[in-house]
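Note to self: the last two entries modelled the partners one at a time, which told us nothing about the interface. This time every component goes in together.
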Amino acid sequence: MAAEIPAIEIRDLRKVYGDKAAVDGLTLTVPQGCFFGFLGPNGAGKTTTIKMLMGLAPPTSGTIELLGLPMPGRSLDIKQQIGLVPDESMLFDHLTGGEFIEFVGRIYGLDRSTARARADELLDLFELGYMPKKLIAEYSKGMRKRVAMAAALIHRPKLFLMDEPFEGVDAVGARLMKDILLDQVRHGATIFLTSHVLEVVERLCERVGIIHEGKLIAEGPMSEMRGAAETLEDAFVRALGMEHAADTLDWL
Amino acid sequence: MTQIGAIFWAQWRTLYHFYPRRGVAWSAVVGLIWYGLWTSVAIVMLRVFSNPTQIPVIRVALPGGLLLMFLYWQVVPLLLATTGSSLDLRKLRAYPIPDSQLFSIEVLLRVTAGIEMVLVLIGITIGALLNPALAKWSLLATAAYVTFNLIIAVGLRDTLARLLARKRIRELVFFFLILAAALPQLLMARRGLVSPQLQLLMARDSWEGWPWTASANIILGNRLLRSLSVLSAWTVGALLFSRWQFSRTLAFDADAANASSSETSRRSWWIEWFYQLPSTLLKDPLGALIEKEFRFLIRSPRFRLVFLMGFTFGLVLWLPMVFVPRGPLGEFFVQNYLTVVCVYSLMLMSDVCFWNAFGFDRSAAQFYFLAPVSFRRVMAGKNVTGLFFLLLEIAMVTAVCAILHMPLGVRRLTEAYSVAAVVMIFLFSAGNLLSVRHARAVNPANSFRTSAAGRLQATLFAIYPVVFAPVLLAYLARYAFGSQTALFVVLAIDAVAGVIVYRVSLDSAVQTADRTRETMIAALSAGDGPIAD
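The predicted structure of the combined assembly is written out below.
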């Protein structure tokens, strides 16, 4: 029964800023246990969508259900079951990485000793344990993403919402993160991520959605999206109608 | 409880890490001095309030004292919020914490921002309880007054935080806050204008409806029921207001607030004309460099605020000395107020115009080292931009003075502009050297000025007397010879010397930048930038 309930169900979602619709009538269903890649060019509406899913921005109209529960109506129950890799600005800059992970664990209801023990293990796993006194403010972009990912894992959530989790992360870190995420999916978790790194999305995701100017322009299983001999990048560029953009400048 | 404990723990860790980590001993010494000072104040209060002979003094001073505490309690959280040492509870919206719990935590966190006032109030309370001439209601009054302050602090802080998150409005808010801080001085100087109202607010006989007057009355045992009702009403009102503001803050979407319609965001032709003015007058690459500086500075909230303050705050600060001249310097201020205000406005603009020319647009510094343009030209472009805005600032000061019908005249104008010109030459000379030797990243979006690093402050402390020495010499010449001509002759000599010094310092700055480019870029990549913010 539980498997029939989609992890994410979005109906006619809209978010308007001024007179511009950042997200315009988005309808999308992500089944449980799915690794879903949400793609789009810069300013397409990916981050706005994920912010609405996380409950950080109220939609202008439309409905969101996560794990069968309405957002924001049952937001506390939903939030208890999701792991977030948000925008970097959501981190607490004046805490160390270990303190932040422990803090998030305790916010999710873990007792202090468990939260601290898991935080230490996660710090080591993400190779952040060698500088325990370094503040998040002093972290590089990649380190900030790692610490956010580590914090998202501490309470073993059922659904992960990730905004550009691989941005600025080095090859070793990205490989580690990919392995962890695939392992989570194998154990039944659902992952919804946005990323500009199409190679990573192609390798990890089962389903993909492409958003452009706030509208979902393509959605489906990876194999269908990229066609017979295409890469995801080819399919993505074709979907956006940008195949020959470089040819427009005669002098170049 | 786990969540509440975790949030308080995170706040404690944030405060612990926020201040420069100079070791436990340093923190202990600073803490001991600061809180020792406030504990001493609390002990003095205890002694005063426990002494029956001091009742007449207490009756007069208590309402005003409680008002000052209220102001302290409301201002400090605002400062902490802007410096980032206060935990931003909005970041917890993504986590499973009920809003009501967040509000309670926010209220309790306000204690940390006003711990000094709690100490003083404890002193007052114990003193009042020990005083046989006072009723034993001080504990109740203190508890109620602390509750009121904690609750209202949340609402005021949230209201202001949302205003500060809105583009352009934030500069206006800061401007009015800073102006408000300077206004009492002006109002006191203009005795007879507002002074009676201020006195009424502070005095024993102030309106009984104020929460500080009601609290004072409870401590003194006056009109107990009425005062309790007043304080309760204020507390309930504060609770409603703060809950409302807190929920609005939680739901606040800065992107939506700052979104503008395509109509309003359409750039006005005149601002585009202004941006392109340097390119019209000067050839590229200098024209392009200056045009970029124009665009960047005008779009920077920090620059806009400082520019606005230059011709407003500077006047508000110095005008009381013109209205009410006191002491031997009083007459000097009356005669030379325009010069003083102009030079002061140059000082206000110093951080954005010359002391740290590369700190604002730090990524551009890296570009300048890569681009096929000489660093000398880059620095010249920065100086021309700085010079333009400083001259504009002085023109604005003059215009405001003219609007206020302040005495101007050819002599005053010539003197003020000549002095400002000489000071500017030396400021740019020193600024070029400091900009490459002590480059530091500054967040252009942060309207609040963060103080410079200790080493830079020490350098500035040594540089200012040198920069002002030539102008002081000119004034000494006027004093010695009793002639305005002597002043202008020395200023002319200063200007010639200044040009030579400027050329030498520019060469030196260019060489230093070439030699230390790696250190400079590293310094500009760290610290208080938009990313770190």
